[in-house]
Amino acid sequence: MVEYKDRIEELEEELRTTKYNKKTQHAIGLLKAKIANLKKKKAGQKKAGSKQGYVIRRSGDATVVLVGFPSVGKSTLLNAITNQESEVGGYDFTTLDAIPGLLNYKSAKIQIFDVPGLVEGAASGTGRGKEVLSVLRSADLCLILVDVNHPEHLKIIQKEIYDSMARLNQSKPDVRIKKTIKGGIRIGKTVKLSVSDDTLKAILNEMGIANANILIRSKVDEDQFIDVVEGNRKYLNAVIVLNKIDSISKEKVKAIANKLGVDVLVSAEKKQGLDELKELIFDKLNLIRIYLKQPGKEADMKEPLIVHVGCTIKGVCDKLHRDILNRFKFARVWGKSTKFNGQKLTLKHELLDEDVVELHLN
Ligand SMILES: Nc1nc2c(ncn2[C@@H]2O[C@H](COP(=O)(O)OP(=O)(O)O)[C@@H](O)[C@H]2O)c(=O)[nH]1
Ligand SMILES: [Mg+2]
């Protein structure tokens, strides 16, 4: 078995000691590509199935994963913002060790999974990359819970997640790579990059791509470019939650919160900041509520359809029933996305939160 670990550490040391500037940029890009390559090989070498990970089953409108060191208050928080009993019933306990709580907020059914011990390895350096990634892959949002008495945990967790190949608060870069049989590397860009074409080409060569047409439409650095070349990354939003704010003075909490750049302050035990947290979860999940109305009747304002930001009238049809799209004539819409009440609109129209939609069908 080849020992990749030493070689990776060697290259990482070289990377750490190389100053980034125009002259070294190329070499650094190459180093990063080499490291990415070796890490991939190393991951492929690990025996599969030695440790059973958590199984996360998606249901409801969205899935959130709660991560944090032991004893930071994950269970307490889950009990405070979800109704754990409601969803326990239908699960097969032999394969599922993570049990979700259900948060009902603004009519959205949001599953929140507590995954105890997921980042435990982070502290000792024995990361559980594959397991972390497989859990995050099933999630729409990652809640990172930090104990105000242990602010040093945050960086460790973030590194563990990054090393697992998940990317927090980044959207997938718009970079298309079309491999070709010959012709070398051709790069087209609609944005200006700080990394040169030569470096991009060297990275591609290092990663085994000699012929390809590349189209880059979002600003990427070397790391993000390597991410795209390797593929297999999970991009998702994260919310950093600072817990136990009741346990130290307000001034200290404020100083720590600023330093860490946390998104919301809570006390799971004293039930402080929980409404703000729920709102933030809803917001970061990019969910919106659409109320449906039948022609000639009042809208159903009790049970909205929960869809994602950017959802069109077609998206609403798709979500309702396969058949509806075929029967669609037009829609009338009331709300923020319209120019006037009851505007007649077609399938392409993008809806906004709390719009009322009346479908006219054949
Ligand atoms: N002071 C304070 N203690 C808390 C808070 N939330 C949780 N705890 C305590 O922290 C300990 C660990 O909580 P637990 O929810 O079991 O943490 P977990 O291991 O992350 O699930 C328990 O003794 C909780 O009572 C909080 O907001 N403030
Ligand atoms: Mg717990």
Task: Provide a brief overview of the structure.
By secondary structure, the chain is an alpha/beta fold.
User: What is the total number of structural domains?
Assistant: 3
Distance between the termini: 65 Å
- Mind telling me which CATH architecture of the largest domain this is? 3-Layer(aba) Sandwich
Name the average pLDDT.
89
> What are the distinct ligands in this entry?
guanosine-5'-diphosphate, magnesium ion
CATH topology of the largest domain: Rossmann fold
Task: Please give the radius of gyration in angstroms.
Answer: 24 Å
* Main beta sheet strand tally, sense and closure: 7 strands, mixed
Helicity range of the residues? 25-40%
Number of strands: 15
Identify the overall geometry: globular
Quote the beta fraction: 15-25%
CATH homology superfamily of the largest domain: P-loop containing nucleotide triphosphate hydrolases
Please write the string of helix (H) and strand (E) elements.
HHEHEEHHEHEEEHEHEHEHEEHHEEE
Structural class: alpha/beta
Unreliable runs: 86-96
CATH class of the largest domain: Alpha Beta
Separate helix tally: 12
